Amino acid sequence: MVKLTTKPLWQGVNQIDAMTWLKALPAELQTDYALTEAAIYAEAVGLELPGLGGISCWQQGVSMADSLLMLKADAPLLAAALLYPAWAYGELDFGELNALFGVAVSHLLKGAQRMDAVSVLHSTFEKSPGQIEKCRKMLLAMATDLRVVLLKLVERLHALRTSPSLEILQQQRLGAEILSIYAPLANRLGLGQLKWELEDLAFRATDPAAYKDIAKQLDFKRIERDAYIFNLKKQLEALVGHARIPTGEVSGRAKHIYSIHRKISRKQLSVKDLFDIHAFRILLPNIEACYQVLDLVQQQFVMIEAEFDDYIAQPKANGYQSIHTAVIGPGGHPVEIQLRTHEMHQLAELGVAAHWRYKEGGASNQSYEAKIAWLRELLSWQGEVEAVHNKNQPVLADRIYVFTPQGDIVDLPIGSTPLDFAYYIHTNVGHRCRGAKINDHIVPLTTPLKMGDRLDIITGKPLQPSRDWLNSHLGYVTTARARSKILTWFKAQDFDQHVSAGKSIVERELKRVHLSDLNQETLAKGFNFFSVNDWYAALGAGTLKPTQLTSRLQTLLLHQDSKCSTKSTETKIWKTPDSGIVIEGVGNLLSHPAKCCTPVPGDPIVGYISLRQGVMIHRQDCAVFIDNSHQHPAQVIHVFWGKKTEQYPLSLLIEAHDRSGLTRDITTVIGHHKINVVEMQVRVSTSDHHAHLTLTLLISYLHNVEALLTELERIPHVIKVNRKGL
């Protein structure tokens, strides 16, 4: 049957020491000073710390390092593997590691720790913004350095090897995580050695009964099967010899248990019906020899046509190349035969690790094409993971990763353009942008960026943003960052022009309402501007709407004889009956809504006669009104809404988790109700990243306020919506 590596590679050596382990390494690694120091340090710290499976952290680190040696790991990666168990245990300090062994080793340890975010992805259905950010950091860490992924994969492999020491539920959780997260990642990277063992051990942990059943079927008549493989191997070696290929190698094996289980489940077959229980691999010096031997195999045996795949002509997405064919072997038994070159076999076993080169600091000196291909493999793996979990919204689906000309990775929202990229790099790069190249081809600045694109921004000397860039219909920029920087530039350039235009707006409105002698500095401060010119400029640029000024002036006109806040757009006064308030048994009496409860059309209301301000209109459930009515019941008067369609102010307080597009979503909902927003203030708390929005709306009797509030509360990330004063 299939043998699994469930024990450390150094099993049998009684408590191996650091120097003995170092002497067994290849010569080029034995002389590496940092690796030697890391091994001695890891032994000293981890020898007494309990690791997984009842062994010490030092033994666990050696087991991980041994697995990495088969993947052609370099010295920093081996050092990180030796230190990782004690690091994960919390016994080692990051700053100390950085000082002792350099940035390369500490970078790998930190990156592998970030990959714990995948466990969060696997175990939770609710993806909070914090979890999403961790996954993004994880993706960036992996895309920057392959060794981070290799370190985490062998750590998970060791956890599986020692899983029998865990409780059943823990074994099942670990196995499920491996099958849905790490095994697909190993497969995408073409790491055949790790993939098969991860899958078989994880299958044993999640479904031990099914695992044992298949193992028993494979073990049945084991002696006969081994003899069959031996004899057929001799026949295939004779075919290779007949083709006069001196470097050909033939090996036979039984298929891995988990792959048998998947095929049985997928095709509803029994073990005896599978075509590749007996599998042979023929390694050859070149592609021509592969097809030459394939022709000889087809002449010697009867082919099973449906089981032929040529992955040399059409490689798999992870770069895997091989010819797979199934034939009827001696005695009528189905047999799978794989033909590939030695180089293809190395890639199939080691994946991208077979040809990846490292340099100090973890950066790769590979070409852009290789790096981009690597990133795309990771993203393809991400899609596999999300498909396993059946999520409605992928965790990372709203981001793309592109490259600078120097090969650095830039994280942008999906839909971003070259201009968004330019402003991300630097404000002046955006202001000076004249064109862009994507993957060495000149493209329009409105071109949406795709995952893995390499961008080069073409710049000129003068800072000359175009006003067209702010036109959302033209699609030049999509990020708030770029739009804000462009707006800031134009505000600075056109300040004098905006001041003149704003001053004209103010003078026109003051003249219209006969308030020409009003103190404009006081009015500007009421809009939170301490400079009159800044206030003029905001009006001239359109940042402050003229309707907001009109509403404020109307309020001041009605309160000339009393002191009031210049922000009181919500305290608009109206007279009955023209205003829409009907006061029972009273003629043309001054009335206005109470600030304490701010009633709007549709609310049940009641009047309270004030000696100074006429009739105050309250909501019937207003606490202030209830208290006053108990003290002066004679001043209570019946009022009700008329059928006027005049608009009234409504102030709302909205609390939400801050995110991109929040204000857009809120104003869109309000717009669907055909309601005007006359004022909006936004404050974001830096401590908890909560956004607090204060809005003043103009509504009519026909509007359904409760329906509006319900829709606003349904907007993603909105915590609560309240009417001001309640």
Number of domains: 5
- Return Rg in Å: 36 Å
Look at the structure and give the CATH class of the largest domain: Mainly Alpha
Describe the biggest sheet?
6 strands, mixed
CATH architecture of the largest domain: Orthogonal Bundle
Total helices: the number is 28
Write a compact overview of the structure shown:
The chain is of the alpha+beta class and about 725 residues long.
Give an overview of the whole structure:
Helix 7 packs across helix 10 (146-161) and helix 12 packs across helix 13. Strand 15 and strand 16 form a beta hairpin. The strands form six sheets. Strands 1, 2, 3, 4, 5 and 6 form a six-stranded mixed sheet that branches. This protein is of the alpha+beta class. It is built from 28 helices and 22 strands. The protein is 47% helix and 16% strand. It folds into five domains: 18-206, Orthogonal Bundle (Hypothetical protein af1432); 216-354, Beta Polymerase, domain 2 (2-Layer Sandwich); 399-493, Roll (Ubiquitin-like (UB roll)), CATH 3.10.20.30; 569-646, no CATH class; 648-723, 2-Layer Sandwich (Alpha-Beta Plaits), CATH 3.30.70.260.
